[in-house]
Amino acid sequence: NPNSIIIVDPVTGNIGPSLAVGSEPTKLAISDDGQFLYVGLDGEGAVRRVILSTFTADIKFSLGTVQVGCGVNRAVDLKVLPGTPHSVAIARSATLCEPLFSVAIYDDGVQRSNTTPDPSTEITSITFPQSPSTLYGYDSLKTGFVTMAIDPLGVSIGNITTGLLSGGILGAGEIEFDAGRIYASNAAVIDPVSRTLVGNFQNPLLPTLPSLSLVKPDFSLGRVF
Fold it and tell me: Model-level pTM?
């Protein structure tokens, strides 16, 4: 089932229905109300939205280009705004001129005007706290922790704290928020408000492959996957 989203029962491992979504689907993001699944399409420089209640394809929208000759943008990470299922934050990268990164907000496929194109930053992973007005990111260029503000016009960088997410060959890799903390795949645990390192957990892929790790914390279980 190439170029498709497939339902898998995580308990039995049984394979369910599949849905064609577009060329080379990669990153996934689900809205917190379970209404939509957003799918990054690397082969098209686009994002497809899936209606989960009916498991049908919804809108597909382009991520545009950074500059002429650099190809289309692809979604290196995407997260749905909390409580706002029709809006999604996307960390984008040019396909032919890397590194050229930016973060943008899309509402039903329409981009808000303010983005974060900045040659001095490479935001490759993003995560929301419970608030739709704050977005956190990992800057792989500075191995920095980034705080961004979101408003009706788009997204802007508030501050970048370096030294929190270094480690391994390519730094943190991925970050995720849970229960007031940021967990990174380089095993760092960060207080995002004070922007300080508060602990570490074990990652068997360190120190060589943190950038290939996905990280999913579950505070209720006391586990980081």
Answer: 0.91
Chain centroid to CA 163: 21
Distance CA 133, CA 130 (A): 9
Dist. CA 38–CA 202, nearest whole Å? 30
Q: How far apart are CA 42 and CA 28, in angstroms?
A: 12
In terms of DSSP bridges, do strands 110-111 and 101-107 run parallel, antiparallel, or are they unpaired? Answer: antiparallel
User: Of the candidates 70, 68, 69, which has an alpha carbon nearest to the alpha carbon of residue 92?
Assistant: 70
Can you spell out the DSSP letters for 155-217? EEEEEEEESSS--TTTTT--EEEETTEEEETTSEEEETTTTEEEEE---TTTTT-GGG----E
What's the number of CA atoms in the CB half-sphere (13 Å) around residue 186?
Answer: 23
Mean pLDDT by groups of 10 residues along the chain of 225 residues? 94 95 96 98 96 97 84 93 98 82 95 85 92 94 90 95 68 85 90 94 67 82 91
C-beta separation of 27 from 78 below 8 A: yes
